[in-house]
Every structure is written in C-alpha cells, then in structure tokens.
Amino acid sequence: YDDLCELLQEFDSYVLTCIQDQNGNHVMQKCIEVMSVKAKDAEARSGEVGLSISMAQRIQFIVDDVLANVKTLCCHPYGCR
Question: pLDDT over 90 for what percent of the chain?
C-alpha cells in the first residue's frame, strides 16, 4: 500500500500529460481502479469505517484535474476514455 501511495504522488503534476497519452491514460485508469479496490478490501478486512474514504482521498488529485479540464479531455482521443 505504501509503495502504491508513493507511486501516486509521482503523478501529481502529470495527470493531464498522462491522460493525453495512450499508455499514460491506461496508467491513470489503473491507479483509480486499484486504489478503489484496495480501499474497499482494506475497509472490509479491518472493519474500520471511513478507511475507504481516507484511501480515496489519495486519488482525489486525479479526479480534480479531470474535472477541471473536462472540456479539453472530452474531445481528446485518449482523454475521453
């Protein structure tokens, strides 16, 4: 989990660059998918309420960048995925 969080931090300033790249787009999608699954699994195992919300906050910067640039991304061949 810690390694995944460190990896996510590396993308912090490069979300749009990644999304507009064929391979980078896939990486961003996988980050969201993996963190969502990990968050649900961790909460189910620990029984700690709110753990998934805490973990979801780790990917919020991706969501924020997408929402801030939705007009540009919706017309991009990779960004619209």
Answer: 30
